[in-house]
Design a protein that fits this description.
The structure is a single chain. With about 375 residues, the protein is of the alpha+beta class. About 25% of the residues lie in helices and about 25% in strands. Among the domains are: about 110-230, PH-domain like; about 235-270, no CATH class; about 275-380, PH-domain like, CATH 2.30.29. It contains seven helices and 16 strands. The strands form four sheets. It has a six-stranded antiparallel sheet, covered by helices on one side.
Length: about 375
């Protein structure tokens, strides 16, 4: 049984042409919008054109308004997000900064004040009180205070660290108000009491001023620290008018009573401290039969003389420390003393006797002065 494909027909109950058309045409009945399946509208021949136009215009206006609303909402959201982020960041930074411990937040930050304190003097008849300048350092990292007294030459006072670094209490009149000293208690022109000493704050540095201005505290105007000249303390004493015997008796009486006495050479010491005249001298040694050279030092503060030998390398001689140790050199030395007998006072060499070309006798050694340094020349020119 043979079958041809051309003669093959299927009985569908409809004509052959309709079946062919229905097989080739598949209308799209579904439409997807926003991932939702909606039914495709089928336009028939019978519809109202006015209704369709109104629907189209409504769809257009609705889409424009929705787009505008979406744009506005997104803009407002972005603005809120931006403002919230900017507001949160400084707040977080400020919170983190406030959470830092004091020793990290104020590490190596020191407030520096210049001032002074008054000291009453009871053991001297020539002054009742004296001013002692000092520097007050306040360490912000641990609220400790360090007081350093400025050093002055020839003051006769042990100076330096007056109060070592430590936390101190503020001494108020009311015992209930006693508390630890704070940086808010420090200000210019103000007295602070530390361990019974009243310190007057007069000046401060630039960092201290900026720190107080930053914290909303206005500093008072600065003050001048009184100048101190320790050399003028005894200017009221005229030692030349005091007779020798009266001065000796007064000295003996004061020492017997446990008191002190003014130093007669204090003025000379203060004016000529560390001023030395240097001369070059030579002496002919009769034993070695050669000329030896020395350095003569005359100390203007106490009129003492020191003679040092100039050591020469590879001379074959042992180095001798000094020909004459520091002492006053008499012109005519007295070798023997007679107890109970009055002896005339010895004459000592002074700067007027030390001139280039002159001879001096160092305990029977005849030495010649043949040179000096620049300081000695200038000193003699002024005199």
């Amino acid at each position: 049984m043979s079958m041809n494909k051309k003669n093959l027909t299927i009985d569908t109950g409809v004509p052959q042409e309709e079946t062919k058309d229905s097989m080739l045409y598949r209308p799209q009945l579904l439409k997807y919008k926003y991932k939702t399946c909606i039914e495709k509208p089928v336009l028939t021949d019978t519809y109202d054109p006015d209704t369709m136009n109104s629907l189209k215009s409504l769809m257009k206006t609705t889409s424009i308004n929705m787009a505008h609303q979406n744009k506005q909402s997104s803009t407002k959201y972005n603005q809120r997000l931006f403002t919230s982020q900017n507001a949160v960041k400084p707040q977080i930074v400020q919170e983190k900064k406030n959470l830092l411990p004091q020793w990290i937040k104020y590490d190596k930050n020191v407030l520096r004040f210049e001032g002074y304190f008054d000291e009453h003097v009871t053991e001297s008849a020539y002054e009742n009180w004296r001013i002692r300048p000092c520097t007050v350092l306040y360490y912000l990292e641990d609220d400790s205070v360090h007081v350093i007294e400025n050093k002055y030459e020839n003051s006769g006072i042990p100076q330096g660290d007056f109060i070592k670094r430590r936390r101190t209490k503020l001494f108020e009149k009311d015992p209930e108000l006693k508390r630890e000293l704070c940086w808010k208690d420090l200000n210019l022109g103000k007295n602070i009491s530390i361990f019974g000493k009243s310190f007057r704050l007069c000046k401060c540095d630039k960092f201290t001023e900026e720190f107080y201005n930053k914290n909303g505290i206005l500093l008072n105007p600065s003050e001048d620290i009184p100048e101190i000249d320790f050399s003028s303390k005894y200017s009221m004493i005229d030692f030349t008018k005091i007779k020798k015997n009266i001065a000796e008796m007064k000295e003996y009486t004061e020492v017997g009573l446990g008191g002190g006495h003014p130093n007669g050479g204090l003025e000379q010491f203060l004016e000529n401290d560390r001023k030395v005249l240097r001369f070059d001298i030579s002496w002919y040694d009769p034993y070695d039969k050669e000329e030896k050279y020395y350095k003569l030092h005359f100390y203007l503060s106490d009129n003492q003389i020191e003679i040092c030998e100039i050591n020469v390398n590879n001379s074959g001689k042992d180095n001798f420390p000094k020909l004459l140790r520091k002492s006053m050199l008499p012109k005519i030395p007295r070798m023997t003393y007679c107890p109970g007998l009055e002896t005339p006072e010895e004459e000592y060499y002074m700067p007027k006797d030390l001139l280039i070309g002159n001879y001096i006798y160092v305990y029977n050694r005849k030495c010649k002065i043949f040179g000096c340094d620049e300081f000695t020349k200038n000193w003699y020119k002024k005199k």
